Hints:
Layout: H1 29-38, H2 42-46, H3 81-106, H4 120-128, E1 135-137, H5 143-148, H6 153-161, H7 170-173, H8 184-198, E2 205-210, H9 217-228, E3 233-239, E4 242-243, E5 246-247, H10 260-264, E6 267-272, H11 276-292, E7 297-302, H12 321-328, H13 332-342, H14 348-370, H15 379-382, H16 390-408
Parallel strand pairs: 1-2, 2-3, 3-7, 6-7
Antiparallel strand pairs: 4-5
Helix pairs in contact: 3-4, 3-13, 3-14, 4-11, 6-14, 8-9
This protein binds thiamine diphosphate and magnesium ion.
Amino acid sequence: MTISADHTAPKTTQAEPVPEQSGDTYLAGAAAEAVRKFGITAEDYMLPARHQIQMVDQDGNLKHHSEQGAEPGHEYPLPGDDELLAAYEQLVVGRRVNDQNSALVRQGRMAVYPSSHGQEACQVASALCLAEGDWMFPTYRDAVAVMARGVDPIEVMTIFRGDWHGGYDPLKHKVGIQCTPLTTQLLHAVGVAHAAKLRGEDTVVLAMCGDGATSEGDFHEALNFAAVFHLPVIFFVQNNQYAISVPLAHQSVAPSLAHKAVGYGMAGERVDGNDVVALLAVLDRAVKLAREGSGPLLVEAHTYRMQAHTNADDATRYRQDSEVAQWLARDPLSRMRTYLFGRGLLDDDGEARIAEKAEAVATQLRNGLGEDVPVDPQDLFKYVFSTPTPQLKEQSALLADELARDAAGTSTPTEAPE
Ligand SMILES: Cc1ncc(C[n+]2csc(CCOP(=O)(O)OP(=O)(O)O)c2C)c(N)n1
Ligand SMILES: [Mg+2]
């Protein structure tokens, strides 16, 4: 097994040099150091630890280090107090936003909302682990993560009203659009990471997806490209146990989704996705490693989608209440609250202040999403290509004609083509 410790980023459009012997692999920086220090093989380093990393148990107790799942090369320091408090505040805001949006859907003020209720720890940690210049590539379910990254709540939720493409500027916030076509965002993420590397920038890219998305061809292409080109990407899989009605057991029979990493030549880890402390520890380290040049990493978070897939889904048709109850006991908010109170980092006053902030965001959503915003149907054509294609121009002219005839009261039903 050869390990090249010198894997700095040359400005090249070529793949990294291939190790001479088949089956050889190469690790860089801290990864290579860990392999040497602990006398483990590169495969052992790349394979996830035997158990998922969990630091705070479901009752809010900090686990003894020896029981956190850490093994040589898979050890994680406890995040700092400030980060933990910031995380708790965002958890509370995120939960309030999830529940407010679900209510707005029922009132007909939002078209759809894929809630991350129960997954807030993953959402919050995704945002907190990144530096300002890093990029996030979220899915439709990651609105809370986008908000926690600092995007205005109304701008984030605009897409779910269903009358506009999207509400925020991806370039300004370094957050890709919330993709609904499954897994497309991973390819965008890898492209941005490749560009950043070619430019010599130290950007890290967090590429988010669900368990179901790991079955898509794009998942394979993104991971393989990122590994071969040694790109600073963290693939963050929120395994919430279901892809709409399809349970994980019908999706994959791999030992875990994190085990998929080693097949591409990257390190994988699995973590309790309802333990924000462990998530921050694992993701913070992944970001550090990626920035130092370790190449891509895969982190799988075990969590649960507490509500239906969207308002168009009836989850009672494919899962039992008893299963949902088990996950309710692992709630990410209540365990963090108990842990912070136990450590004296949070008290009743602090909690009241946080609740007030969460309520202010909910009010902002109710007010902002309750207004009818006039939309120009021609905008449909304006933001697809910087130079519109002849087809789009033709469609735009047809629409203009139709709208003019509508306004003049001379519109006739369009005939179906032969
Ligand atoms: C390419 C593609 N195929 C199918 C769908 C329909 N679809 C939307 S969400 C979804 C399930 C995705 O599950 P998962 O990746 O686990 O994410 P989760 O919704 O659980 O967060 C499917 C099949 C789609 N949006 N895009
Ligand atoms: Mg899922």
